[in-house]
Amino acid sequence: MTSAGRRLLHNDSPTPGTLPGSAPELLSEETVLEQARLLDITWRDGGGLWGWLTTVDHKLIARRYVVTAFLMFIAGGIEAAMMRLQLARPENTFLGPDRYNQIFTVHGTTMMFLFAVPIMTAMGLYLVPLMVGARSIAFPRLNAFGYYAYLVGVVFLYVSLFINMGPDAGWTAYVPLSGPQYSPGHRLDVWAQVVTFTEIAALCAAVNIIVTVFKLRAPGISLNRIPLFVWSQLVVSFMIVFAMPAVATASTLQLAADRALSTQWFNPAEGGDALLWQHIFWFFGHPEVYIIFLPGLGFISPIIETFCRRRVFGYLAIVLANITTGFFAFGLWVHHMFATPIPELGQSLFTAASLVIAIPTGVQIFCWLVTLLSGRPRLTTAMIFILGFFITFVNGGLTGVMVASVAFDKQVHDTFFVVAHFHYVLLGGAVMPLFAAFYYWFPKATGRLLDESLGKWHAWLFILGVNVAFFPMHILGLNGMPRRVYTYLASTGWGPLNALSTIGAVVVVISVALFVVNAAMSARVGRPAGANPWDSYGLEWATTSPPPNYNFVNTPIVLGRHPLWDTGSPLPVITGLRADRREVLVTTAFDAEPDYRHRQPNASIWPLFLALCMAEFWIGSIFTPWAVVGGFGLTLLGMLGWGWQSSRQIEVERVDTDLQIIDTV
Amino acid sequence: MSSASSSLVMLVGLLVTAGCERENHHFSEVPPTATPSASALVVSELQPGPATIAPKIDAPYDDNAYAVSEGKTLFTSMNCSGCHFEGGGGIGPALMDDEWIYGSEPQQIFASIAEGRPNGMPAWEYRLSTQQIWELVSFVRSLSSLNPKGARGGRDDHMMLKPPEVSTPKGKPKTASALPGTQH
Questions:
Q1: Could you tell me how far CA B124 lies from the centroid of its own chain?
Q2: Which residue among A10, A204, A308, A484 has the highest number of C-beta atoms inside a 10 angstrom radius?
Q3: Cβ separation B160–A187 shorter than 8 A
Q4: What is the ipTM of this complex?
Q5: Residue A595 near residue A587, CB atoms below 8 Å
Q6: What is the pTM of this model?
Q7: Cβ within 8 Å, pair A49-B68
């Protein structure tokens, strides 16, 4: 590293910089091609089924993650459609009460635990290393382990549902309903363990993203140049680290123990506390809402910037709004519990906190509005979804401010008004930006563009369907229709609005079906995208579509917040990472100066093995204590194998003078 | 791949057979074994003429967790605990020891509940449905762990007056040969 290079990287100006004056050398095309050939051999997985099972490539794992989570969205959507059919008219008999309870519980559990959080972290696992210019993710094997743990949860929940063992106490599993006396059998044990699997997966992803963002950024991406999507992923990952252990503790160590071992955590008669469950659950559950929609908000900035041909207004304000949201998200969980006897002082505090959190979100929305108004927006499918986000999410936010007030909340608590509110927030704040992100990054992942005309049908129908399905629920809730009921009498007068809501649900189903068709067709015969189909600015667009297994031939150097717009393509690069083994460049946390070359593990079967051992441990423990003994031994074996392999593979070398800044490729 | 999928199918099949009946919720139905016939209710071997072999009837809900828990709810709400206490006995006989005055077979317990017994046990067949009586039968049997473990209840959501049914050791019922009235 030259001293000029050091100076460059110390430059913390957010405006585009220039390379220092020292005459740069140029890399010849043959050198680059040879480097790419060697890298491909080094980073390639084994062939066949074994290679498929042992891969630790973050892009392959994240792609499976996204596909699995999207299948869960479809499964949860089918359950939602079944519920809407059941409620379409009074005293319907399409689903009985018992089946209905299982369906709505599995719908909520699927959407919150198996779709929303995993798909957001999966998008991060795919995009964050590309956006920060890294060869790979920080802990590739942990990443694979997280996915398999999640997959076990998915399979377990759905096998259970099909054998009539689906959980049936709501996705919040309130005690004492979910406790041993009122939920006999193993249905709620399934819920408790599925939650455990997904929390472990989320924690693996969060740790991975935090370390990737802090230590694997390409030279020049100082903290004030981190892409906004990466900021949102970083904030969310910290939230996961603080929130998920709460529910994993509550579900596994407390609820499952109460049920299987007759502990008394939630039994007031023996000194336990039923309200304790609600506190711990919502201490996780409320931040989870922000864990779901902060990445959604993170998708929006790059999409708006790209299609408005304008840098986002108020970068600093958006970053601070992200961090503030992440902070306040932990201070308002009690607003889910206003109907419980909590002290008035607490009610006031949590009302205030619930109102305050609307401010940072509002700041972000106004930043985007300014960006939109001062740019030249192109109405692509992604942008239509962003418009849908504005309409739907702002509506959900407004009802959110309404239910933050205790007096109002007590009127609508556990009614369809709340159902309408959180579906507006989640579909508007997370799912619509997610679809926008699919249209925007699909060409990066597959090399082909999604069809725009089908896409526009999908977008408009989806926005229309969501609003038709959920707006009537506001009125139904105000009219007193409680949530989680499997039917109602005709004399209540709720029939027509419920029928309208069901029509909206049908429209949503049609629009999502259009998307599935679009994705399946475009992945095969879509228009080839090229490296940068939208003429965007991020580092992920600097490599080919789909990216090679080593992501970048040489690590790029970043001179501003919008690398490809600031410097133009090709980007200046830094050379010196070895091509004959898997190495990543570790940089400093604040200024992203090159610090270490870190050797990364090769493909490994141990993540899958360990995930299966863990599955045996947790699932078996529902049925027999001997599974704990066996699972403990197996898990120990898996960890030994994993660690033994690590000690042979992982090395760290201090960066020496063989790293060089090269002006252009 | 095919061996993996076939073993998955086998696993699912195993789970179906193991999990299905335990998890079913039966609402207002006529149970598979309805009211036992009179010949099934014989408690004593002493009778005129040659010995008749009473057909054994399985309790329909012994392996159904929901029905057993419904039985527990009925046990409280019908005030069974008023005499039998939490199963340990008080005014009425204990239900969790190994002495069964009128027999421990499902149909014998059914008859005790439905028709009542001398010295205070009322007849419940005019107050409870056949299904509810069978639910009570399975709950009473679960007090001495005579039914499968997966269907037995966990700890109660009130004071711990006895170990949960799920961790009660299996009872050893004595042969139901004692004459009515000779026991306490």
A1: 15
A2: A204
A3: no
A4: 0.83
A5: yes
A6: 0.91
A7: no
